[in-house]
């Protein structure tokens, strides 16, 4: 089945990162991938962040209050859980991402753990629910966009309430005035336009948690939650492209291939490159990432002979997780981290 008009409408509202932007350690704001589930809301002038629920001391903070607190800056790679969905067969109807739903930002804000400790999370609490200003209908359910983290991850992790991106106030499309940033987790976790944090004493069962973003092999399957980013390497397409097909054209000789690799499960340990569609592999040179939560650069010297080639790259992390050669189909089209393939013609 082809891509529908509804999916094209989604694709026009959202955008991926051009793969040539992999050359940047930190993605320029306008090139960072963007997914907006509903509409970009306008924050009221009276906006405040409210922290409540199963806490001893509810907290209410203005943006100025948050800016006055000790700040943290992190460089974090963020990827949409649906990245690669459009390459699945059978076709999954949703935002039709290819491989570009990723970006790396320099986020500044306040660590969430001290704020929760200030509020006094009560014993027996289970989840911390993050609610945004954006509202709409998904799966027939009228809702504000909400996601949760287990209390242990919220208190013991490195989640950030960010009010700046790349040294500037958050732009409207990226969550002004405040958004959640959870290093290592897929993008749906990072709630934008944040206005409320609620600690609850039972598992959160909101639509975006209990129904969407679950890895299910069939419609009747309850599935498991989609959480952390699977390992992935991407390549800056070499040479120049054909306008329509994006096939690449390069001249014979030594070609420097380069790209980025990341994993939300463990640090990237290796990147391999293939020039024959995955029949044989060679190790690439791997660089240190600019932040433990950011992608790592890699490079490889390819001796390009005349003819048609299929380049591929794959990442492996320190826990042994490696990209598959072929995608694993699932109902929502999530976590497709099959290797990137780049068609290249070498000619004089």
| Share of helix, binned | under 10%
Number of helices: 5
Tell me what the CATH architecture of the largest domain is.
Answer: Alpha-Beta Complex
Class of secondary structure makeup: mainly beta
| Overall number of structural domains | 2
- Trace the largest sheet across and list its strands: 14-15-22-21-17-18
* Assigned CATH superfamily of the largest domain: Oxidoreductase, molybdopterin-binding domain
Query: What fraction of the residues are assigned to beta strands by DSSP?
Result: 35-45%
The CATH class of the largest domain is: Alpha Beta
Distance between the termini: 38 Å
Give the overall shape, derived from the CA principal axes.
globular
Topology-level CATH name of the largest domain: Sulfite Oxidase, Chain A, domain 2
* Oligomerization state: single chain
How many extended strands? 22
Q: How many strands, which pairing sense, and closed or not: the largest β-sheet?
A: 6 strands, mixed
Describe the structure concisely for a colleague:
By secondary structure, the chain is mainly β.
Helices and strands in order, then pairings?
Blueprint: H1 5-13, E1 49-53, E2 59-61, H2 63-68, E3 72-79, E4 102-111, H3 112-119, E5 127-138, E6 141-150, H4 151-156, E7 160-165, E8 168-169, E9 179-181, E10 194-200, H5 207-210, E11 214-215, E12 224-225, E13 232-235, E14 240-241, E15 248-250, E16 253-262, E17 268-274, E18 282-283, E19 285-286, E20 296-304, E21 307-317, E22 340-346
Parallel strand pairs: 1-10, 15-22
Antiparallel strand pairs: 1-2, 3-4, 4-7, 5-6, 5-10, 7-8, 7-9, 11-12, 13-16, 14-15, 16-20, 17-18, 17-21, 19-20, 21-22
């Amino acid at each position: 089945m082809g891509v529908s008009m509804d999916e094209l409408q989604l694709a026009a509202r959202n955008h991926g990162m051009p793969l040539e932007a992999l050359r940047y350690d930190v993605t320029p704001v306008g090139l960072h991938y963007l997914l907006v589930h509903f509409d970009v809301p306008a924050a009221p002038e009276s906006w405040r962040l409210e922290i409540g629920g199963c806490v001893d001391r509810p907290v209410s903070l203005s943006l100025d209050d948050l800016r006055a607190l000790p700040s943290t800056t992190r460089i974090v790679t963020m990827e949409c859980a649906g990245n690669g969905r459009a390459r699945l067969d059978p076709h999954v109807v949703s935002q039709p991402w290819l491989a570009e739903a990723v970006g790396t930002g320099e986020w500044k804000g306040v660590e969430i753990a001290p704020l929760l400790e200030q509020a006094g999370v009560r014993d027996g609490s289970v989840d911390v629910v993050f609610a945004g200003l954006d509202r709409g209908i998904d799966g027939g359910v009228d809702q504000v966009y909400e996601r949760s983290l287990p209390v242990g991850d919220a208190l013991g992790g490195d989640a950030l309430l960010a009010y700046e991106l790349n040294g500037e106030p958050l732009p409207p499309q990226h969550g002004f005035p405040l958004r959640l940033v959870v290093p290592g987790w897929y993008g749906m976790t990072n709630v934008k336009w944040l206005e409320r944090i609620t600690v609850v004493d039972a598992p959160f069962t909101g639509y975006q948690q209990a129904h969407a973003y679950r890895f299910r092999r069939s419609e009747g399957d309850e599935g498991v939650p989609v959480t952390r980013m699977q390992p992935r390497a991407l390549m800056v397409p070499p040479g120049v492209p054909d306008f329509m097909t994006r096939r690449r054209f390069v001249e014979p000789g030594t070609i420097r291939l380069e790209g980025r690799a990341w994993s939300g499960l463990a640090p990237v340990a290796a990147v391999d490159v293939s020039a024959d569609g995955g029949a044989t592999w060679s190790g690439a040179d791997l660089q240190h990432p600019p932040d433990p939560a950011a992608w790592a650069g890699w490079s490889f010297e390819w001796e390009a002979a005349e003819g048609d080639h299929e380049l591929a790259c794959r990442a492996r992390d320190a826990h042994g997780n490696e990209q598959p050669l072929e995608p694993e189909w699932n109902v929502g089209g999530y976590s497709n981290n099959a290797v990137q393939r780049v068609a290249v013609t070498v000619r004089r």
